[in-house]
């Protein structure tokens, strides 16, 4: 039986916030003012500008095809695939723009290798990932996310959510790095 991990992309596999911050500065002059917290707390976005709409606009630019890996993701994703036969099924709220999806797939394949991924699903911007996650209900599969709400949703569906990011966020399993996921959560070596 194939070993598969369900995963989000932005904030888990790829670093979305730094390129988004650069784009905001270049396109609109909005400066980054903090390194942690919600997007609107990290970037000086005027109150009359909707951060969600700004993110959607960014996700439809060529920048989305050139996001760097998040931290140590390449090392441990490749180890999981090459040494343990683990592959990844991607569920991303990138949006349904076919050009953005093509760039997302190209970016993932260039960074991690094409054979690492079984499927790439892109749901509508900020839409629920539940429709995809329901296919795996009750399986106990790992579900890697950086959104507490999405991680919690996976847990409610009988998955094993792992929340990436700030330790201040509560989750049954919270990691700061792929190394931590690999060794401490999954017990791989």
Terminal Cα separation, in Å?
Answer: 21 Å
What is the makeup of the main sheet? 6 strands, parallel
Instruction: Name the beta content range.
Output: 15-25%
Overall shape: it is: globular
Fold-level CATH name of the largest domain: Rossmann fold
What's the mean pLDDT score?
A: 93
Order of helices and strands: EHHHHEHEHEHEEH
Radius of gyration: 16 Å
**Uncertain parts:** none
Write out key terms for the chains shown.
Rossmann fold; 189 residues; 8 helices; six-stranded parallel sheet; 2 domains; 6 strands; globular; alpha/beta
Written description of the protein model:
- This protein is of the alpha/beta class and 189 residues long.
- It folds into two domains: 3-15 and 67-185, HAD superfamily/HAD-like (Rossmann fold), CATH 3.40.50; 17-66, no CATH class.
- Helices cover 39% and strands 15% of the residues.
- The chain has helices at 17-28, 39-42, 51-59, 73-84, 98-112, 130-133, 148-156, 178-185, and strands at residues 3-7, 86-92, 117-122, 142-145, 160-164, 174-175.
- It is globular, with a radius of gyration of 16 Å.
- The two termini are 21 Å apart.
């Amino acid at each position: 039986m194939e070993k598969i991990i369900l995963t989000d992309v932005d904030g888990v596999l790829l670093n979305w916030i730094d390129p988004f911050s650069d784009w905001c500065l270049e396109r609109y002059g909005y400066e980054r003012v903090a390194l942690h917290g919600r997007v609107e707390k990290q970037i000086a976005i005027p109150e009359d500008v909707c951060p969600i709409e700004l993110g959607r606009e960014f996700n439809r630019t060529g920048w989305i095809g050139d996001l760097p890996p998040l931290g140590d993701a390449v090392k441990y994703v490749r180890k999981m695939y090459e040494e343990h036969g683990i592959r990844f099924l991607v569920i991303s709220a990138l949006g349904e723009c076919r050009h953005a999806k093509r760039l997302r797939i190209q970016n993932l394949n260039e960074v991690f290798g094409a054979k690492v991924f079984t499927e790439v699903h892109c749901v509508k911007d900020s839409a629920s990932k539940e429709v995809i996650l329901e296919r795996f209900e009750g399986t106990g599969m790992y579900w890697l996310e950086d959104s507490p709400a999405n991680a919690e949703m996976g847990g409610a569906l009988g998955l094993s959510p792992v929340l990436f990011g700030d330790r201040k966020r509560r989750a049954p399993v919270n990691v700061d790095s792929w190394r931590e996921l690999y060794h401490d959560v999954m017990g791989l070596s």
